[in-house]
Design brief:
single chain, 19% strand, five-stranded mixed beta sheet, 5 strands, alpha/beta
C-alpha cells in the first residue's frame, strides 16, 4: 500500500517492524509487533481536524535515515510508511510486560538529505498535532 505522507502528518502504527534485527544463522521474518486493536479503533474514531492521521507500518532500527535511497530500500523491505529509532524497543517492552501498545508518530522530515533542517522546522507543529490527537483520545 503506497501512502503519501507529508511533513506534519501523523502516522499511527498498525505494526512496527524491526528492520535491523540481523539473523546470520537462520532465516526468519523480521520481528513484527502489532499495535493494540482496541486503541487503533479508538484512534480511527477520534475527531481529528488539524492534521491527517495515516495508519500503517513503521520500520524501526538504530540508524539515522537521511538518504532517500535508503528510505526506499526500507519501504521495499518492510512496507513501512515511516521510520524511527525507538519504536521496536517500545513495542517489545510493551509486549514483554503485556501492556497494550499504540504508537502515534509526527512526521517531521522525509528521511532524506534535508532531514535535520526539516526536523527543526517541523518538530513543534508535529508535537502539537500529537498532543491534540492524544487529547481527542482521552477526551481532553
Amino acid at each position: 500500500r503506497q501512502m503519501c505522507i507529508r511533513d506534519r502528518d501523523l502516522v499511527a502504527a498498525e505494526a512496527v517492524i524491526e528492520h535491523d534485527y540481523n539473523l546470520h544463522f537462520v532465516k526468519r521474518p523480521l520481528p513484527r509487533f502489532e499495535a493494540d486493536a482496541e486503541w487503533l479503533v479508538r484512534l480511527r474514531e477520534a475527531a481529528v481536524d488539524i492534521c491527517t492521521v495515516q495508519f500503517g507500518t513503521i520500520a524501526s532500527g538504530d540508524e539515522d535515515i537521511v538518504d532517500a535511497e535508503r528510505a526506499r530500500e526500507l519501504r521495499a523491505l518492510t512496507g513501512a510508511c515511516a521510520v524511527t529509532w525507538e519504536s521496536a524497543g517500545l513495542a517489545r517492552a510493551c509486549k514483554m510486560q503485556h501492556v497494550p501498545f499504540l504508537e502515534i508518530r509526527a512526521i517531521t522530515d522525509s528521511a532524506d538529505k534535508d532531514a535535520i533542517a526539516d526536523l527543526q522546522k517541523n518538530l513543534a507543529v508535529g508535537m502539537r498535532n500529537v498532543a491534540v490527537v492524544l487529547g481527542s483520545l482521552f477526551g481532553n
